[in-house]
């Protein structure tokens, strides 16, 4: 067997390797505190499950349109219009088997081989993988830590733009940093995108995972709607990660291209699951509210305890389910420079399992500080308390 050359450029989500390693260690009897998980341990609200099984029994088990069922496309457009103040219709929505497929489809539709694509690092690792796999040149941009949290350096992003730059991937409410752009930062990014004629993927996977304040979208700034494709997902806000349901939302020309890839790739998104999505958006919202309340309690406790660990500094994002503590002083004190060695040493000694900055793209040359990601979507408050207590004892 000989794999195609492009396979050597395909990355992966190395966080899955951390999950495997933790599972193996758990089999040896070590109690694991799973802060590495990007998945959720919360249940999908029962009304969604009920609506899905009902439609399955009713025979919605054949193919449907490659665009998705019209009712769900309308409901997604209405949901986005409510939170974004936009005027999308069904024609602007192509239902997808999850949010992740929107990343590949966006790259396939709008990037030619050799084009340069700006993407965040640290960031969701699939961006870099998809760009490189399809023959583009991944150009990372970074976040800077400020006393208020993680901020974009728009001048630095602009320096990375060349005549070959075509696309910008932007993940406001960011995995892994929890970063959230201010209105001024958004305006500066929009100005940049318009001036350099960039097509933008707005990854809004965490748009509704919000505890305080209001989520803002780059797509709503003047002149941006026509150049932005929004990645929308049911995964997080309804605890539906394994259902695989999301959408690509944007100008009709863009969405037409995405839906054409659906015909070629999967024919259609799972038919009856789309009725679950419809119930999620049009039925009672108590389940989604409860999910946010559980996550809020976890965030508060996790942040409080992480901030009390000597040498660790930690911002408290208003959205996402991640903390991204700075561990530079701890690593220095332990005389460990290697992220993997640091992660493993702590995992084996305490059972506390987390991802480090290395799981979110290659560090940029100017990066001196060291970070880990604590995810609280798969660990309850009691385990957060015990795990971070053990970590504090160990590091003290
Ligand atoms: N974008 C970001 C930033 C994510 O963190 C994730 C999942 O963790 C996704 C997209 C994709 O999520 P899904 O495919 O479950 O919708």
Note the topology.
Elements lengths: L14 H13 L5 E2 L11 H12 L12 H15 L8 E4 L3 H11 L5 E5 L5 H8 L3 E5 L1 E4 L2 E4 L1 H6 L5 E6 L12 H13 L3 E5 L24 E6 L12 E4 L2 H14 L5 H12 L3 H22 L14 E2 L4 H6 L5 H12 L1 E2 L1 E2 L15 E4 L5 H15 L1
Parallel strand pairs: 1-12, 3-4, 3-7, 7-8, 8-9
Antiparallel strand pairs: 2-10, 5-6, 9-10, 11-14, 13-14
Bound molecules: pyridoxal-5'-phosphate.
Produce a short descriptive summary:
Helices cover about 40% and strands about 15% of the residues.
Structure commentary:
It is a single chain. With 396 residues, the chain is of the alpha/beta class. The chain has 2 domains: 5-43 and 287-395, Aspartate Aminotransferase, domain 1; 62-282, Aspartate Aminotransferase, domain 2, CATH 3.40.640.10. The chain contains 13 helices and 14 strands. The protein has helices at 15-27, 46-57, 70-84, 100-110, 126-133, 154-159, 183-195, 252-265, 271-282, 286-307, 328-333, 339-350, 381-395; strands at 33-34, 93-96, 116-120, 137-141, 143-146, 149-152, 165-170, 199-203, 228-233, 246-249, 322-323, 352-353, 355-356, 372-375. The strands form 4 sheets. It has a 7-stranded mixed beta sheet with strand order 2-10-9-8-7-3-4, sandwiched between helices. Strands 11-14-13 form a 3-stranded antiparallel beta sheet. The chain has a two-stranded parallel sheet with strand order 1-12. A hairpin with a 2-residue loop joins strand 5 and strand 6 (149-152). The longest helix has 22 residues, at 286-307. The protein is globular, with a radius of gyration of 21 Å. The mean pLDDT is 96. The structure holds pyridoxal-5'-phosphate. The site of pyridoxal-5'-phosphate has 13 residues, from loops.
């Amino acid at each position: 067997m000989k794999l195609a050359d492009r396979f050597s450029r395909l990355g992966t989500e190395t966080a899955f390797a951390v999950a495997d390693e933790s599972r193996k260690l758990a089999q040896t009897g070590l109690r694991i505190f799973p802060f590495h998980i990007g998945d959720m341990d919360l249940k999908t609200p029962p009304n969604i499950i009920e609506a899905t099984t009902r439609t399955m029994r009713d025979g919605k088990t054949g193919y449907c349109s490659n665009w998705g069922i019209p009712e769900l496309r309308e409901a997604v457009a209405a949901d986005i219009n409510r939170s974004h103040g936009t005027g999308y219709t069904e024609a602007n929505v192509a239902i997808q088997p999850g949010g992740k497929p929107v990343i590949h489809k966006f790259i396939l539709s709008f990037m030619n081989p050799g084009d340069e694509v700006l993407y965040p690092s640290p960031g969701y690792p699939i961006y870099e993988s998809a760009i490189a796999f399809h023959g583009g040149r991944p150009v990372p941009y970074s976040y800077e830590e400020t006393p208020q949290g993680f901020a974009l350096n728009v001048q630095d992003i602009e320096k990375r733009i060349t005549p070959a730059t075509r696309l910008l991937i932007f993940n406001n409410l960011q995995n892994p940093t929890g970063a959230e752009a201010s209105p001024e930062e958004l305006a500066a990014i929009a100005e940049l995108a318009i001036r350099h004629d960039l097509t933008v993927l707005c990854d809004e996977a965490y748009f509704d995972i919000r505890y305080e304040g209001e989520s803002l979208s780059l797509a709503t700034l003047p002149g941006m709607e026509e150049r932005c494709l929004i990645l929308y997902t049911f995964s997080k806000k309804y605890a539906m990660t394994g259902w695989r349901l999301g959408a690509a939302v944007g100008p009709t020309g863009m969405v037409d291209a995405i839906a054409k890839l659906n015909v070629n790739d999967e024919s259609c998104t799972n038919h009856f699951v789309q009725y679950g999505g419809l119930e999620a958006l049009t039925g009672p919202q108590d389940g989604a509210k409860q999910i946010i309340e559980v996550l809020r309690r976890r965030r508060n406790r996790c942040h409080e305890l992480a901030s009390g660990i000597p040498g660790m500094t930690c911002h408290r994002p208003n959205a996402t389910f991640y903390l991204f503590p700075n561990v530079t002083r701890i690593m220095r004190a332990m005389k460990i420079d290697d992220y993997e060695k640091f992660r493993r040493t702590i995992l084996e000694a305490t059972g506390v399992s987390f991802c480090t900055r290395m799981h979110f793209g290659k560090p940029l040359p100017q990066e001196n500080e060291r970070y880990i990601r604590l995810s609280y979507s798969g660990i309850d408050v009691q385990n957060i308390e015990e795990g971070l207590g053990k970590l504090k004892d160990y590091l003290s």
